[in-house]
UniProtKB/TrEMBL annotation:
Annotated keywords: Membrane, Transmembrane, Transmembrane helix
Protein name in the entry: diguanylate cyclase
Spans through the membrane: 24-45, 51-73, 82-99, 119-136
Gene3D superfamilies: 3.30.70.270
Length: 302
């Protein structure tokens, strides 16, 4: 198990490109292509002696596909940097294909093919490829971010109930113990000092746990003020030391300048043929005993 630490925050740049920018690119794209066609036909209006239908259709289809891709980019939500490279790249690529298409119909000077058609098409392909790389990188970052959000608690950044249950069930065959901790008198903290103080108490408590708990502990928030730990050991002494550490570190969390936090803790070691729900239930029963015995203490359920 990895070192217990706050799950990383992954930020993907997916700020939507302003509509006015997209409108400008679309207008510029259409106007420039039309101007190229009109200017080209005005200056080079001698038809080719041999016009091959398959060549004309092939270039026309290629150009149409590229125009559709450009339209797709304009309607997609991508990062600004990716959008810029994709739009510029596809535009230059389309310019090159437009000259290539016209070359099938009308006589084209060699210098146009070498210095305009080939250069714009090649540059367009390179820039589009780089823009696609940026878009895929952003997509991967976004997926990673969503995966983290699905398994972490929004407020505290601890692992959430769903991920904790999934993790424990995936590791049922390994020796382990389950611990449940509940913040003492949390409702009273909210009522007396306000929910903002209560939220900060939760955040501070999780921070202290992330800093102190070892590699063999998975820490999660499974309810309002209720937390759970998967401890990768079936040794009672090691489990006791971990739970006592939890009781100790919570004193570092200040509710007010003169009041520290306290928690009640219950634990249970998984038996050989026991299910996850049964082990969790015994840990919960131990927590209940800790509360009934005066709170701010640790009870183990054999």
């Amino acid at each position: 198990m990895n070192k217990q630490a706050p799950p990383p925050e992954v930020k993907a740049e997916l700020n939507s490109v302003p509509l006015v920018v997209k409108q400008f690119f679309i207008s510029f794209f259409v106007v420039v292509l039309l101007m190229i066609v009109v200017t080209y036909l005005y200056n080079f209006n001698r038809l080719e002696s041999d016009v091959y239908l398959n060549g004309v259709l092939s270039d026309a289809i290629n150009l149409l596909i590229l125009i559709c891709i450009f339209a797709f980019v304009q309607t997609s939500v991508v990062a600004k940097r990716s959008y810029l490279f994709l739009s510029v790249g596809i535009f230059l690529w389309s310019v090159g294909l437009t000259f290539d298409f016209l070359d099938e119909l009308v006589f084209q000077p060699i210098w146009v093919g070498i210095y305009i058609e080939d250069i714009t098409r090649t540059l367009g392909m390179l820039i589009t490829g780089f823009g696609l790389y940026l878009a895929l990188t952003d997509l991967a970052k976004t997926r990673e971010q969503l995966e983290e959000e699905l398994k972490t608690d929004v407020l505290t950044k601890a692992y959430n109930r769903r991920y904790f249950y999934h993790y424990v069930q995936q590791n049922q065959s390994k020796p382990h113990s389950l611990v449940i901790a509940d913040i003492d008198h949390f409702k009273a903290i909210n009522d007396e000092y306000g929910h903002d103080v209560g939220d900060q108490v939760l955040i501070d408590f999780v921070y202290q746990c992330h800093q102190a708990l070892g590699e063999d502990v998975l820490f999660a928030r499974i309810g309002g003020e209720e937390f759970a730990m998967y401890v990768a050991t079936d040794d009672a002494d090691e489990l006791h030391a971990t739970c006592e550490q939890l009781l100790s570190l919570v004193s570092n969390v200040m509710v007010t300048p003169s009041k520290t936090l306290s928690v009640s803790v219950g634990s249970a070691i998984k038996r050989a043929t026991e299910t996850f729900s049964s082990t969790l239930k015994r840990a919960d029963q131990a927590l209940y005993l800790a509360k009934n015995q005066g709170r701010s203490r640790y009870v183990h359920k054999p």
